[in-house]
User: Which sequence fits this backbone?
C-alpha cells in the first residue's frame, strides 16, 4: 500500500476525504470568498455541486446578521481566533435552518494567506424535536393541572355553598361558629392553592417590550404601601434607568413576589432595599431585607413547587418567579443568614443575543 506521505495527489485525496464527511465543510479566503465546498455543504445549503466556489460566504447568512455577526466572524478569523455556536443560516432558495457552525483558521505550508475553515452541522430537525418534546411535556402538565383544578373547583363550590346554608339555617353555638370559620378559611386556602397551581403551569410565553425596571418595582409595591406604612417598613429603590426587553406584567409579578416575601420576613421598622447594577450584558437586581432569614437546610429548596418555610404558605410563588426569570433568559438565586436577612438576586440580560451578533468586536 502506498504511504500517505508519498501520495502524488494530496489535494485530490483531501477532496475525496472531505466528500465522505457528513458535515458541511467550507474553505474560504480571509475576505470571505469560498474557495472550496464539499458536497455535503452544497446539499445542506441548496447549491448545485461546485456553485458555491467563488461566492461570498455572506450569502449563507441571514440579512439581520450581515451588519455585525458576519463581519465579526471575519475579524475573529483575521486574528486567528476560533468560534463555535448555533446560528440561523440561509439556503439558496432563501429558506432558513438552524446550524451549528465551527470556525477555525489554518496556515498550510506553502500557502501565502491563511485559510478559514468552516464546518456546518444541520441541527434544524434536532431543535424542532426538542421544541416539540418540550411543548408536548408542557401541554401535558397544563392538561393535568387544568383537570385537577376542574375536579377540585366543583366540589369546593358545592361544599362552600352547603356549609353557608347550614350555618344560616341552624342554631349556631360559639363553638359551632368557630368550626364554621375554620371550614371557610381552609376552603379559601384550597381555592388559593388551585389558582396558584394554574398560574404555575399555564404561565404564558413572555411578550417582550422595552421597559425600565424602577417604575415596575414601584408599581409592584403600590398594593403593599398600607402594610409597609403600618409596620413602618422602609423601602429603598436604587436602580439605574436602563431599558430591558421584558414582559411588563410578568416582571411586575416577580417584584411583587419578592416584596411579599420580604414583608413577611421583616419586623417593625424593617428595611427592604432594591438595588441594581449593570455589568457587561447583565442587569443585576438585588432584593435585600433585614428579616428573619432562611435556614441553611431550607435554602436549596425554596424555588421548588409546594415548598414553604411558613406554616400558612403554599410554596408556589417562588416557583412561578423562577419560571418567569428563566423565560426571560435570566437567573435567580438567594443567599440568607438566619437572624440577619435574605438577598434575592436576579440576573437579566440586557441583550438576549450574543455580543458577536449585535455589536462590532474589538479584538
Assistant:
Amino acid at each position: 500500500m502506498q504511504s500517505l506521505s508519498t501520495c502524488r495527489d494530496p489535494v485530490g485525496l483531501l477532496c475525496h476525504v472531505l466528500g465522505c464527511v457528513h458535515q458541511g465543510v467550507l474553505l474560504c479566503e480571509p475576505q470571505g470568498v469560498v474557495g472550496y465546498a464539499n458536497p455535503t455543504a452544497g446539499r445542506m445549503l441548496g447549491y448545485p455541486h461546485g456553485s458555491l466556489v467563488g461566492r461570498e460566504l455572506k450569502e449563507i447568512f441571514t440579512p439581520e446578521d450581515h451588519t455585525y455577526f458576519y463581519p465579526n466572524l471575519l475579524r475573529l478569523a483575521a486574528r486567528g481566533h476560533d468560534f463555535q455556536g448555533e446560528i440561523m443560516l440561509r439556503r439558496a432558495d432563501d429558506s432558513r435552518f438552524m446550524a451549528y457552525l465551527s470556525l477555525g483558521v489554518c496556515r498550510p505550508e506553502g500557502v501565502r494567506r491563511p485559510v478559514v475553515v468552516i464546518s456546518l452541522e444541520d441541527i434544524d430537525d434536532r431543535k424542532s424535536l426538542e421544541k416539540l418534546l418540550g411543548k408536548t411535556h408542557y401541554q401535558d402538565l397544563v392538561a393535568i393541572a387544568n383537570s385537577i383544578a376542574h375536579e377540585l373547583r366543583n366540589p369546593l363550590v358545592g361544599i362552600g355553598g352547603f356549609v353557608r346554608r347550614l350555618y344560616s339555617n341552624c342554631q349556631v353555638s360559639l363553638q359551632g361558629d368557630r368550626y364554621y370559620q375554620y371550614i371557610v378559611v381552609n376552603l379559601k386556602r384550597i381555592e388559593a392553592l388551585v389558582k396558584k397551581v394554574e398560574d404555575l403551569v399555564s404561565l404564558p410565553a413572555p411578550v417582550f417590550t422595552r421597559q425600565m425596571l424602577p417604575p415596575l418595582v414601584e408599581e409592584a409595591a403600590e398594593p403593599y404601601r398600607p402594610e409597609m406604612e403600618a409596620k413602618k417598613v422602609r423601602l429603598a429603590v436604587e436602580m439605574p434607568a436602563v431599558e430591558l426587553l421584558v414582559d411588563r406584567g410578568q416582571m411586575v409579578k416577580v417584584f411583587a413576589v419578592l416584596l411579599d416575601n420580604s414583608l413577611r420576613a421583616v419586623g417593625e421598622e424593617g428595611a427592604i432595599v432594591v438595588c441594581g447594577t449593570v455589568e457587561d450584558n447583565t442587569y443585576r437586581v438585588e432584593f435585600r431585607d433585614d428579616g428573619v432569614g432562611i435556614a441553611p437546610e431550607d435554602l436549596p429548596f425554596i424555588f421548588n413547587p409546594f415548598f414553604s418555610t411558613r406554616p400558612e404558605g403554599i410554596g408556589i410563588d417562588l416557583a412561578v418567579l423562577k419560571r418567569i426569570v428563566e423565560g426571560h433568559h435570566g437567573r435567580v438565586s438567594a443567599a440568607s443568614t438566619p437572624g440577619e436577612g435574605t438577598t434575592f438576586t436576579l440576573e437579566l440580560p440586557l441583550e438576549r443575543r450574543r455580543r458577536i451578533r449585535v455589536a462590532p468586536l474589538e479584538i
In short: Residues 128-201 form one domain. The first strand starts at residue 24 and ends at 28. The chain has three domains: 4-122, 128-201, 209-357.
